[in-house]
Structure formats: structure tokens, C-alpha cells
Amino acid sequence: xxxxxxxxxxxxxxxxxxxxxxxxxxxxxxxxxxxxxxxxxxxxxxxxxxxxxxxxxxxxxxxxxxxxxxxxxxxxxxxxxxxxxxxxxxxxxxxxxxxxxxxxxxxxxxxxxxxxxxxxxxxxxxxxxxxxxxxxxxxxxxxxxxxxxxxxxxxxxxxxxxxxxxxxxxxxxxxxxxxxxxxxxxxxxxxxxxxxxxxxxxxxxxxxxxxxxxxxxxxxxxxxxxxxxxxxxxxxxxxxxxxxxxxxxxxxxxxxxxxxxxxxxxxxxxxxxxxxxxxxxxxxxxxxxxxxxxxxxxxxxxxxxxxxxxxxxxxxxxxxxxxxxxxxxxxxxxxxxxxxxxxxxxxxxxxxxxxxxxxxxxxxxxxxxxxxxxxxxxxxxxxxxxxxxxxxxxxxxxxxxxxxxxxxxxxxxxxxxxxxxxxxxxxxxxxxx
Length: 433
What we know:
The chain has helices at about 1-20, 30-40, 40-65, 115-180, 190-225, 250-255, 255-275, 320-385, 390-425, and strands spanning about 25-30, 70-85, 95-110, 230-235, 280-295, 300-310. The protein is of the alpha+beta class. It has one domain (about 15-70, about 115-280, about 320-425): Outer membrane efflux proteins (OEP), CATH 1.20.1600.10. The strands form two sheets. A four-stranded antiparallel sheet has the order 2-3-5-6, with no helix packed on it. The protein is elongated and about 140 Å long. The two termini are about 60 Å apart. Residues about 1-5 and about 10-20 have low confidence and may be disordered.
């Protein structure tokens, strides 16, 4: 009776745990999950905004190459008359007023900056490429995470199915033992052993079900949606995909994060020249055209001026030299970051290939283990019914079969995970545009 009550309670728990996904949302395939993630993930949206920022920074840099025209207007009330228009000759006296109105068009156009402005444009163009490459890497990383998480759910669902079958088998075994006990062909202790094994399998079922809930939460996080928007996932976990890796060096050189760091090195080198250009003269063309008037807008006069301004740094207490040394240090740092990224990428490829080879070998063994455990359990059940075996042997076989199934699905997941990690390591994850 206690066991029946426990079974009902567990059933209610499992039913309630599924309500979060059954009340709404959709049943999604892997491709649908990826599509939603590419549209809804905050990581992707943030990365897209980084590209937008770099695009506008490039526009700012290009704009600095063109003339700048400003319009200004002013009004001043003075405590006494002041000359708002100076004397133009001994015969043309200055004009005075205690109110001064004026407007001006101011023009400034850079003529020579020692390559600083052009260098800044190059830096901004490279930054745009860097952000695009980082965006590509973020997309591939997100797809890998969604894929692995999705496959983990499929694996756990298979384990859950195996748990349910094991519970159902133990329930049938329990009925058989009860009949044997009534017929005085088995001891009560054998029934207790079955009860213990059944309780253990039910606990495994609860554990697997809650693991599915947790992984489902992780999938929703990667997708950028509420977990209640996902009813369930559907798909098959197989080991049919094969990858042949050729020209690893070529693949690594085109990996998005490697491309971004390579461009960062190029960018850092240009920054050295941009900072060094501060030592050169700065020459600009300026012009000013406007109108000034006194009180009541009387005696209005046009005023204008044009000229060239040149400046060069003579002493700055070593600031420019310090900036150049800083940029050189940053350039060396960028080179080391690139070198480390290439080494790390090579390790990731080798590790993914190693895990893939290991998973392939494990799959063969795991498949045979499942077949063997099923056959062993069948034999032990027949022996027990014939009175030639013990319930302990049957329960051990049942436990071994459950473990073999769990190992098989874990190995199947490991294989697919290795495939995904290898694609990520080589930068070959397919991104649908």
C-alpha cells in the first residue's frame, strides 16, 4: 500500500513538472531553436549593436577629413557704448553701441595633419571588420551551445524512456515475485529486494526528469526566450554525421576569432603611426563670414576673414613619446594574444578530434553492452522463473541494463558534442543568413 501511494505521488510530481512546458509554447526542432536564438538572443543583438557602433565610428572618422562649417549668432547688452565695428580709415570712424548683434559662418578645413586623420579612418575601417568577425564568432558559439544543449535534452529524454521501461519491468517482476511468495516458492525478502530496486529506479526517473527541466532552462537562456515558450523539443540523436578535417592551418586562419585578433594587430600598428603623427605640424584653412549690427540693427556691416593656421608641438613634457611607447606595448600585446589564440585553436581542434575518435570507439562498445545486458536479463528472468536462479541475479541484471542504456545515450551525446566542437574549433559551423 505504501509503495502504491509513493507511486501516485511520484506520478503527480512528474505530471506537475511537465506543466511548465505543456500549458503553452511550441514543440521545436533544432533548426527552429537556432533560428529563434539568432533572432532573440541578447548576445546576438548586443553583437549587432557593436557592429553598428563601429560603422558610425567609421563615419565620424571619414567626416573629419571634410571641411567643417558652423553657424553662430550672438547678442550682447553692454553697460556702455563699445566699438562693435572698428575704424576702417582715419576718415571712417568706428561704430559704437551698447547693444551688439552678430552672426557668423565659420569654416575650418584640415590641410595637413601628418597622416593622423587618414590613419584614424584606417583604424575605424579595421574596427568594423573586427566587430563583424567577433559577431560571426558569437553566432557560431551560440549555435554550438544551442546544438549541444538541444542534444543533451534528447539524450536525457532517451534515458527517461529507459528509466520508465525499467520501472515497468520491475513492476511486472514484482507481480511475478508476489505470485511466487503466495505459492511459497519465494521468500518475503525477495519481494523486499524488488521493492528497493523499484524505488531506486523511480528515484532515477525523478532525477532524469528534473535534469531535463534544468537543461530546458539553459536552452531557453541561449535562445533568449522564456522557458514557458518552449513546450518540448523533437528530434533524433544519431551518430551518422562524419567530418574529414583537411588543411587545418587554412581553416584556423579563417576562424572568426583569429581573423579579429589578426586585424587587431594590424590596427595596433596603425595606432603607433597615428600617435607619432602628433609630432608633425597641423595645418588648417579657416574662414569667417558674418554680419554685425548695433541697437535697432542700425549701421549693419559685413565682416569676413580667411587664412591659414599652422601649429606644431615644441614641448609636452614627453607626453607624445609616452603615448608612442604605450601603443608599441599594446601592439606587442596584440601579437601575443594572436599567437596564444592560434595555439589554443590548434589544441581545440586536436582535442575535438581526440574526443570524436574516443566517442566512435565507445559507441561500438556501448551498443554491444546494451545488447548483452538485455540478453543477460532475459536469461536471468527465465532462470528465476524456472527456480534455477535468484532474484538478486535478476535485479543485478536489471541494474546493469539500465546502466548500459544510460552509458549508450551518454556516448551518443558525446559523439554529437565532439562533432559540434570540431566544427566550432575549425570555424565551419554553418550559419544560415
